[in-house]
Amino acid sequence: MSGLQGKIIITTCAEEKADKINILLNSKGATAINFPLIKIREAFEQKQNIENQLANIAAINWLIFSSTNGVKYFFYWIEKLQLQFNPDKFKFAVIGNATKSVLLNHNIEPHFVGSGKDSTEFANELLEFIDTPDQQILAPTGNLAMQSIEQVIGSKHKFNKLIVYHTSEAHSINHKLSEMINNFEYDLVLFLSPSAVRSFAKSVSNKTNLQEIKSVPIGITTRQALIDYGTSPVLTPSAPNIETMINELEQYYIQNTN
Fold first, then answer.
1. What does CATH list as the number for 41-167?
2. What is the pLDDT of residues 201-254, one digit of tens each?
3. Is 211 in a helix, a strand, or coil?
4. Nearest-5° angle of CA 145, CA 22, CA 98?
């Protein structure tokens, strides 16, 4: 029997991510309940800047992606703006296997796949990997992206950040979510990003004790966001991807069930 059998697990991510998590959890006998506390969309307010930067993309040496959404919305804009794009002209770097998989869907094999658990480690690994000085870097990303990659890579190369998608957080109380949390009608809350943690804190009532939340973050950056709110996560996966999170969560319950 799966260690997740009968567990009630709350997800807080955008709908598109929740679908994948729900399938994995349901296959292991868990009940997944999604409260999407963040929304992700194309950065339409950045259209002119995106068009300007992509029009001059021939000058770029490296395209680096720190999220699956970075890949998704980069190609969204390439198609929407009807731009010619020859991947053979560039080198590609991605932060992990999940982002690599999305890039492979576009028939592009990345030149570098970071093994780091967070963006700073990824940036330092990539900095050591790039052996040609003064490279032109383009990083398609979101409006809430961490600055660490830019700071590290930008210390030795020309770094260009391109906001291709927009993440917005919930700003109103979700009473159903608050009731489930306050009545302990769940086993765990899963968080895939620091923005989801912040949105969660804004969405539950002021009667909710955040320090008592039973949580699992996808990686150490999200873990730190939980710690900043006084929450001690149950565990942090050894690799920042959904499959590892679910598998290690299952093992956690197997090992901790009397």
1. 3.40.50.10090
2. 999 988 889 999 999 999 888 999 999 999 999 999 988 888 999 999 999 999
3. helix
4. 40
